[in-house]
User: What shape does this take?
Amino acid sequence: MMRFFDVFREWINNDLAIDLGTANTLVYAKDRGIIVNEPSVVAVHEGMRGDKKVLAVGKEAKDMLGRTPGSIKAIRPMKNGVIADFEVTQSMLRYFIKKSLHGSKFIKPRIIICIPFGITQVERRAVKEAAEQSGAREVYLIEEPMAAAIGANLPITDPSGNMIVDIGGGTTEVAVISLGGIVYSKSVRVAGDKFDESIINYIKKKYSLLIGERTAEDIKIKLGNAYPSERDKETYEVKGRDLIGGSPKTIEVTAEEVREALSDSLAEVVEAIKVTLEKTPPELAADIVDNGIILAGGGAQLGELDVLIKEKTGLPVAVAEDPATCVVRGCGTVVDSIDLLKKVASHY
Assistant: This one.
């Protein structure tokens, strides 16, 4: 009997919050918390006529990256925080929504989706239509920096300045928030994916070794750091293809080398923060001196990043609790509060 009431409650409270990220998609369900956290990857089989058949979505599809035959492609349909492949994004959204609703075809949820600040109306419409065609009855959009700030428990409705730096997979968004709105925001297409690309290019240039995206991501997770520390001499075994001989080859890279590989990309992130501080009204800038800078997003987990930003800006810097889920938790808070929804989300 209790199971019946649990299912019935889920049928009624079927609102979902979705962080449709370049690297990962997270889904928050009202009263249930985060129920999906999977890579934004779709494996498709391309037919002779160019038609696409979805074979796998999420983690299962990511495991296929770099390992598929010619007729099968592992696609990341989101690029720089926006839809790059509408058809595949729609299939991915439909899969995650269906999974969140236990496969039911009858429930039409209200959905709140996080989007990068400053994307075009065309891109906003594409996100909305993808969600509607995936089974949503109603779609709201909320800017990622605002969702991240809510997830980090910042007092967004107060008349004081708060700075959030959301480092995702495709973009880094720096925003100053006051009175429930974004006063100024700057977005740069430098984030987790660019970090991986920087590592690939560094190893290619220094060691004439070609590695894939998954290997670069593993290196970033194991050795990634932004500031000199006692970890500098730690090493990681890297396997790839020798560009000179063409055969497989194994090398060891150090944390110091990884930091060197990431230095240019991190400099762009720091520059975006500095520009935002320069554009911030004096009164709010004074608040940021007191309140500091909060880092969110998966990229905020990079070792010593807070130390680097503190040195470059002279301001206090803190990493939000569980930064990788900060955006979807903030979006989930909006799902749970109709008053907050009216203040910070856009309904199209």
